[in-house]
Specification:
Order of helices and strands: EEEHEEEEEEEEEEEEEEEEEEEEEEEE
Helix content: under 10%
Largest sheet: 13 strands, antiparallel
Structural class: mainly beta
Distance between the termini: 65 Å
Number of domains: 1
Number of helices: 1
Strand content: over 45%
Length: about 350
């Protein structure tokens, strides 16, 4: 009997393996590329050899390696975003409180001279931050002890509402599943990142009011990041989290960036409680620009999301050797996300988060 030549073989489901992290990110001068189940113990970015064709001094490698640590967190009413960003020619210290109910923003936003916030090669046990007379931001990562802490404060001055924040995230296999990646950017350059969705407890003192957070509906994502990005850095990114219809803690991270071979190397994941599922490469479209609805989709039928910004949050400047055209809106998501193995299909209706459309020349 003749076979039906029109029948195409079924395509296998998308997969991307997570392996145990190496002891060192760079071995024998080369990055250990891959997707890992947790942070690399020593992220020795500066030990890489010839990241720009030729041997260069360690201080130049340090100057070109951008580093940041950021958190997106919140509950039904509040959304928090904070970041300490070392672009090496300048630094950024950010802390935002977005009151979704009253549509009110409270913020710390400082563009500063090149400041070393204290980021080192080992995430565990590290405390970083900055402070002055008007504000303070600090992060403490005690991964071995199962606790990540974010603290911030702003003094009352010039009519600004003072605030104090203490957020505690539960880390460990009972609560969270980290996704760590080392992804190629060309030549012998790479980006390294650990992202993890965690339950949160803590409090916020905002003016005369105090708000308490528990780990039922309060949660957040940590992003620890280092990279030898090009002089012209571009990427699109979104993250969101919340409770699904079953009351489970869920979240996602989706990026389209300058990484090579994104079918094999990407950082796209779905989190469901303390499990993580790999997702395929995605594309971003914005028919009405960054303040309109964003559409995020893949080619495997696993990701189909729309993101509606509430607060645009631009950071823009143009100097002689550096420029920023950045939008980091906060907003809500709708659509569906499915795991490749078919075990999870999330109807997204109540998830909140943020996105970035970033161009940075530095």
């Amino acid at each position: 009997m003749a076979s039906d030549s029109s029948q195409q073989p079924e395509r296998p489901p998308y997969t991307r393996l997570f392996s145990d992290p190496p002891e060192h990110l760079v071995e024998n001068g080369q990055f250990q590329l891959g997707c890992f189940t947790g942070p690399v113990k020593v992220a020795n970015m500066l030990d890489v050899e010839r990241p720009y064709h030729y041997p260069i001094p360690r201080w130049i490698k340090a100057l070109r390696c951008k580093e940041w640590r950021a958190f997106q967190a919140g509950n039904e009413r509040f959304f928090f975003f904070t970041a300490l960003y070392e672009a090496k020619l300048f630094s950024l210290a950010l802390f935002y409180i977005w009151d979704k109910q009253n549509r009110q923003i409270y913020q710390i936003k400082r563009v500063m001279r090149p400041i070393d916030f204290g980021m080192g090669e080992q995430l565990d046990g590290e405390r970083i931050g900055c402070q002055n007379r008007a504000m303070a931001i600090s992060y403490k990562t005690d991964l071995n002890g199962g606790l990540v802490t974010v603290e911030a404060s702003r003094r009352a001055r010039r009519g600004l509402t003072p605030f104090r924040v203490n957020l505690n995230f539960s880390y460990g296999p009972k609560h969270a599943a980290p996704s760590t990646v080392c992804l190629p950017l060309g030549l012998n350059r790479a980006m390294y990142s650990t992202k993890v969705l965690m339950p949160m407890q803590g409090w916020l003192e905002l003016g005369e009011e105090r708000f308490e957070f528990d780990n039922h509906d309060a949660m957040g994502v940590m992003d620890d990041h280092k990279g030898y990005y090009p002089y012209r850095l571009r990427y699109d990114w979104v993250t969101g989290f919340g409770l699904d219809a079953k009351g489970r803690r869920i979240g996602f991270n989706l990026t389209s960036n300058q990484v090579k071979d994104q079918a094999v190397y990407n950082e796209n994941v779905l989190w469901v409680k303390n499990k993580v599922y790999p997702l395929p490469p995605v594309t971003f479209t914005r028919p009405q620009g960054p303040d309109g609805v964003w559409h995020i989709q893949d080619t495997e039928g696993l990701v189909d999301l729309s993101f509606k910004p509430d607060f645009l949050n631009p950071v823009q400047f143009n100097m002689l050797i550096a420029a920023s055209n950045y939008y980091g809106p906060f907003g809500s998501f709708e659509g569906t996300i499915k795991s490749a193995d078919g075990s999870e299909k999330i109807q997204v209706r109540t998830l909140y988060g943020m996105g970035e459309q970033k161009y940075l020349r530095v």
